[in-house]
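Progress narrative, work stream C.
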Amino acid sequence: MWHMAIEQGPITVLDDREAWNLLSSVSLGRLVTSFGGQLEIFPVNFVTQNDTVLFRTAEGTKLFTTVMNEKVLFEADDHTVAEGWSVIVRGTARMLTSAEEIREADQAVLMPWVPTEKLRYVRVTPSEISARRFRFGPEPQYGHVPG
């Protein structure tokens, strides 16, 4: 689904292609899962591949909650002194198991940041992606919105 960027004062709603371009420009994001009625959030280093989010993980809570609850949110953002942006991916997460899937994921050359074994690949396939750019500035006078 493609949308045009829509500017509303200091906030611009970005289209899907711009969202993927922004995601591709950073390597740290946050994976949000839910298990047993509790929300969990994990920082992960990642890459984008074929309009999906790919990360590696070890056995543990992150992998367990992803496998037990395939619906996830993934968020990444960045900023400068003048502006910032945020991209949110809603979708399904799945551990890669077939040799073909793992071969494709290996081509992304996704290396762990910390010196621990991360033997499992997880791919987040989006059902929806949204992105916004924020122009920073002083708070407007009461009752006035710049734009």
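Work stream C, second folded protein:
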Amino acid sequence: MFKQLSLAALVVLGVVGYRVVAADKPAEAPPAAPAATPAAAPAPELPAPDADGFISLFNGKDLTNWEGLTDFWSVKDGVISGEESKEHAAPQTFLCLSQSLAHPEKFANFELHYQYKFTTPKGNSGVQFRSQMKIPKNYRIGGYQADCDASRGYDGSIYDEAGVAGGRGTMSGRGQKVVWNADNKRENTPLPEDNKQLQAEVKTNDWNDVVLVANGDHITYTINGLLMTDLTDDSPKAVKDGIIGLQLHAGFVMEIQFKDLKIKFLDAK
């Protein structure tokens, strides 16, 4: 399930123009130790919260507040676009929220709202949270992912990208309430609507409205007003905070779009 570097950062990393194509999820290598976040100018401060406590993460004009490979990420028609082709292949890469790169410890407990749309018949993406930097030159991060894809196979599931949360693959599937206990054992309970019923509510080539809540050990992923999956993670492999990012998955001819991103920080349970 499967950026805008400053000139100074590119010189420091010494990797101008270098790209590595990552494998699809089943072929991912075992997780390595977290890598250092790319050196960059100080992250811009986020806007003040609105009356309901939400902070806008995207201004609809440019990639202020975001960092990534600008060969693949841009703003067009007021939305964030991640795009790749056979002729312009992307590595496994993410557009990362600058403040979460600079202060990952602050992005632990939150309610995140956004909309996403695939404009192509194929593609794979997702929103990373509680994630860690793996390959700085590619803005390759790993951790919890609110998964989605153009064929609606994974939308509504939580995936362990790059094995950062213990190599647990799909940690909580669509239509499931999942508890990972203190012994790292998984307990599954079905939600009222099953996988197929929930899949039918995910739109193709149209905007899907997401509410993602991570608070303490409890994570919920809602699409178009329907609870898709409910995860309680008491595993010793759980990750408590980290980077927020938008995925452009390697190996596709695809475009993924995001808009209306906003976050409200929560007090842990």
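The chain is about 5% helix and 40% strand. No further action is required on this item.
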